[in-house]
Amino acid sequence: MSRLWVSRRCGEALLVCVIVLASCGLPTDVSPSAVEVPSDIFPTPDDQSISGAPSAPDASLHAVFFLRDGRLVELQRPLAAPVFLDAPLNDLLAGPTPAEAETGLESAIPAGTEVVDVQLSRNNVVSVHLNSVFFEVEGAQRIRAVAQLVLTASSLARDTQGVLIFLEGVAQSLPDGAGTIAQVRLGERPRALRVEDFGELMPLNSQSAAATG
Questions:
Q1: Three-class HEC string of 79-145
Q2: What does the pLDDT look like over 127-174, one tens digit per residue?
Q3: Which residues contact 119 (CB under 8 A, 6 or more apart)?
């Protein structure tokens, strides 16, 4: 009697389990079966949370020159490749960033100045064509603005032999660091301005190094 009672109880328990499983909708297959998982459960390899931020494009450093307390200050700015001749100059015309301005950096180049064209001649003279806004500044501000432009343009290529600044296709006679404007004969171009023409605006430590070098 006890064995029969146990068999009946086991059979009833098994029947209850089958009913519960069926009501829950769970599969009763003995062999494993594939289960489809929604695609948004796991991130793909392209997900930035796994692969990290996308790599920055190749960049090279180019010199731009601003002013602090009336002296020239060189900054190395990264520019994404490919870098054309006008890119560093446009970066210069954009002026110091707010963070740079907080350190005392400023620009004498008037807002609204635009680069019309930049050319590098066979004798390594850089020709910079600007709109008329650049020539609105006068006096000391013009000297500083020219210095910023000449030094930045001189760094566009190796062994540059000076910079000529044009307005509407005509090379302009502009002052050097001492405020001197070279006399130009009729029919001739002005002398190209060079980095050494602006020694008066160089940082004091640079002048000392040049004197002892």
A1: EECCCCCHHHHHHHHCCCCHHHHHCCCECCCCCCCCEEEEEECCCCCEEEEECHHHHHCCHHHHHHH
A2: 999 999 999 999 999 999 999 999 999 999 889 999 999 999 999 999
A3: 85, 126, 127, 129
- Residue range 180-203: mean pLDDT, rounded: 92
Give 37's Cβ-side CA count (13 Å radius).
Answer: 6
| Mutual angle of helices 86-93 and 139-154, in 10-degree steps | 150
CA 160 to chain centre: 24
- DSSP letter, residue 172: P
| Bond from prior residue into 175 cis (ω within 30 degrees of 0) | no
